[in-house]
Write the structure tokens for this entry.
Amino acid sequence: MNYNDQKAKFFARTMHTPDDEARAAVRSTLREVSKHLMPLHRALIDAAKDDYAFAYGPVDQPTRLLGLLNEDPFFAWLKPITSLIVDIDEMSRRDFETSEVKAVSERLEKFFGPSPDPEFAKQYVPILQKSVDVAVGHAALRNAIARLR
């Protein structure tokens, strides 16, 4: 692939055409959702890390934590949230279809809605009930998700 093809592919993936007012509002809301989802994700990682330390021993090195997040089944429940963050951030930087926004909204509801996925809820709800940071982040995220619909 020559340089111009690579450049065109990069711009197609990372740039978007000028937005009309409605699309600009959706893009802004996607960025707001991401702004609230990232610290919530971090708080979930910290809480899961504390639970892991209690069960298996401390996680002293950031590289070890990264390895655990990627490979250890204990942290597998967080992977869909990581993927969701990546997808939202990518979508907010490029042209997107209404159907994509709807799909992201459904994924957000699946994890953070009133009836979350049972497998996710099994891990999430106890942390939500004991961590103030997670509870505050959850509330802020719910408000942003409501504007996405």
